[in-house]
Amino acid sequence: MGDEPVIVVDTNVLLNLATPVVDSRAGAPTGEDPLKTVLSVYDVHIPSTVLGEVSEAARDDDLLGTAADLVLMAAQSLTTHDVDAKIDDALAYGLDRGESHAIWLANELAAEMFVTDEFNTTNYLIVSIALDDRNTLFTTPHLLCVLAQQEILSSQYVDAALTYYVEIKDWDDQYIDRLRAEYLSV
């Protein structure tokens, strides 16, 4: 890639970024493509485990499967690393293999950001402890808000996307409201 900041993302982040793009239901935000935007603004790295999880999700004949198909179509924009042989044991504490491998990769690459959507669980605390201090922990809604603040995505789109995610993903209202207050001026 170029001079883009290096970020590592886990499976749910990729799927969550793609979901509003493929969701044709009323209430889904339209007009922008958060997956494409993230892939063009950042040098996105993933462990091969994450790509495997996305491929597995693509087998489903539902919204998540369609989102996974979109991620797979964009996979050439991802830098994939085989980390299986380099890791002794995956982290435990409720993290799946993809998340565990992604944390390891973020530490290995000294990535500027590690993005996960574990914020509705106690796993977020485990992730924050497992990451090296030089890595910045983000969530998909936080990342979208930063992109709105930098005027890469419109504030109106991100605001609509946040509402959408609260409704379909049951994301924490207080967390989302705090992000809105901090980053969005809609």
Provide structural commentary.
The protein has 186 residues and is an alpha/beta fold. The protein has a single domain, classed as Rossmann fold. Helix content is 53%, strand content 10%. The chain has 9 helices and 5 strands, in the order βααβααβαβαβααα. Strands 3-2-1-4-5 form a 5-stranded parallel beta sheet. α1 crosses α2, α3 packs across α4 and α7 runs antiparallel to α8. The protein is globular and about 45 Å long.
CATH homology superfamily: 5'-nuclease
The CATH class designation is Alpha Beta
Query: Hey, roughly how much beta strand do the residues contain?
Result: 5-15%
**CATH-scheme architecture:** 3-Layer(aba) Sandwich
How far the N terminus sits from the C terminus, by CA atoms, comes to 33 Å
By CATH, the topology is Rossmann fold
Q: Class by helix and strand content?
A: alpha/beta
Number of structural domains: 1
The string of secondary-structure elements, in order, is EHHEHHEHEHEHHH
Globally, the shape reads globular
- Give the overall average pLDDT: 88
Main sheet characteristics? 5 strands, parallel
Short summary:
With 186 residues, the protein is an alpha/beta fold.
Task: For the structure shown, list the relevant keywords.
186 residues, alpha/beta, Rossmann fold, 9 helices, 53% helix
Helix and strand layout, with pairings?
Blueprint: E1 6-9, H1 11-22, H2 34-41, E2 43-47, H3 48-57, H4 63-73, E3 79-81, H5 97-109, E4 113-115, H6 123-130, E5 136-138, H7 140-149, H8 155-169, H9 173-183
Parallel strand pairs: 1-2, 1-4, 2-3, 4-5
Helix pairs in contact: 1-2, 1-4, 3-4, 3-5, 7-8, 7-9
